[in-house]
Write a sequence for this structure.
């Protein structure tokens, strides 16, 4: 395992278990097209795992999607991603990494602000993105489980998330 | 708003003038539509090929009438005759 020099990000004021996750509408990208979709449209259909990642192309995004694919979470719950990458970049990522999940595109990073997980990138002036974060949402966007990075870089606690998915 | 309730699904390409022409018509008639953007590369347009038989955009699916159509001139003509003043008079 590689040793990282990590940066403390401090506490984030994000929705926690039992609270309602903010609704939003953004282009949702699949392998064939993208269209505006509201989070609430998806949660109306059942439980949802919302995965915030760094921008497409950054290695943590690749690692996270590889892990989610290898763990086949998509068989138990609908998984959707979100990053600041454009729909075009998302389409390339879905194809290159053979990801069978849809990804929200939010270049303005407004959703991360709404969720209290905005992360200004050092050395990339003017660009902010979400902290790595995972929210498991039940009916009416009630948060069943939440994890938000408090250091950078950081990766989701996959086993813990898997337990939360299994106990739905 | 639940966009899946929209009457028309509109397959389009960003910045394509033929698509913008259809957009203007849809807005002129106040039709509820859901935009689906596709990639510029023809080889990646499987969804459009599947619904319309062609890889060209614009293409629309009118869920009210069951009509699927491509080519902007055809679509504009269809929208005019179905939802324009002429169409309404003929229907009346």
């Amino acid at each position: 395992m590689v040793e990282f020099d990590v940066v403390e990000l401090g506490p984030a004021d994000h929705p926690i278990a039992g609270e309602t996750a903010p609704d939003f509408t953004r282009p949702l990208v699949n392998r064939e097209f993208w269209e505006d979709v509201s989070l609430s449209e998806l949660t109306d259909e059942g439980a949802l795992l919302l995965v915030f990642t760094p921008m497409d192309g950054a290695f943590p995004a690749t690692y996270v999607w590889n892990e989610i694919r290898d763990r086949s979470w998509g068989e138990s719950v609908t998984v959707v991603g979100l990053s600041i990458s454009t729909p075009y970049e998302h389409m390339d990522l879905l194809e290159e990494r053979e990801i069978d999940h849809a990804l929200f595109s939010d270049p303005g990073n407004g959703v991360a602000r709404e969720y209290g997980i905005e992360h200004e990138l050092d050395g990339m002036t003017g660009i902010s993105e979400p902290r790595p974060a995972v929210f498991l949402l039940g009916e009416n966007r009630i948060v069943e489980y939440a994890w938000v990075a408090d250091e950078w870089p950081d990766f989701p606690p996959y086993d813990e998330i898997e337990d939360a998915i299994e106990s739905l | 708003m639940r966009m899946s309730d929209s009457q028309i699904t509109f397959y389009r390409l960003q910045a394509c003038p033929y698509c913008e022409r259809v957009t203007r018509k849809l807005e002129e008639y106040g039709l509820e539509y859901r935009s689906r953007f596709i990639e510029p590369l023809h080889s990646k347009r499987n969804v459009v090929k599947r619904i319309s038989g062609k890889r060209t955009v614009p293409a629309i699916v009118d869920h009210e009438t069951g009509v699927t159509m491509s080519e902007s001139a055809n679509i504009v003509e269809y929208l005019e005759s179905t939802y324009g003043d002429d169409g309404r008079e003929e229907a009346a």
Observations:
- Residues 3-91 of chain B form a domain with the Glutaredoxin fold (CATH 3.40.30.10).
- Chain B has four helices and four strands.
- Chain B has one domain: 3-91.
